[in-house]
Amino acid sequence: MIPGTRVVILSITSAILLAVSVLAADKAFQPGRATDYAHQVSEQVIVGAKSFDTEELTAQAFGKRADLLKYGIVPVLIVIENQRDKSLDLQDLKVSLVATDGRHVDSMDPEDLQYTGGKKHHPNVSPLPRLPLPKKGNPFASPEVTDRIFSAKMLPPKDSANGFFFFEARPEPGDKLYVSGIKDARSGEEILYFEFPLDGKGQ
User: For the segment 85-99, what is each residue's pLDDT rounded down to a tens digit?
Assistant: First the structure.
């Protein structure tokens, strides 16, 4: 065997195994279309959302290690479809959970996932101690979580984007999702805000 060949073979094998594992993870969870969830349509833009508020749902999306609900964090999947002929600017996108009596909580900064508690709390949740999770083996820093965070800043015509927003909240019946900050990329004009119940069929 030529010196170094074994190292190359092992490296190639490792790369193949990593690629297979990534493909398996992607295959395990694939978001649907916006209309597959509770949704709203406005000015040829569709926003759909689903609250992953059970252990079974979070395991499907992030694996069993990332028990977000245990730390009082509820992930909400957002799917945005741009059916317009112009691009959308999502840089100022803002997402909030709104209770039936008007209480609301904004989505967390993704960097705050390294903590057990954040700066904002749903009104019916007692504040949690802001203690850092272990740096090594932190499940919230795993690719299964970080790769699924909503990160799109621009959305081309006839295209879609999806990802999760995270809330320090306890889900309640009748919770609504409030989405604002979607703009026409060329004019800067904001699209009408979206507000719809997470347990609804959409409109």
Answer: 999 999 999 999 999
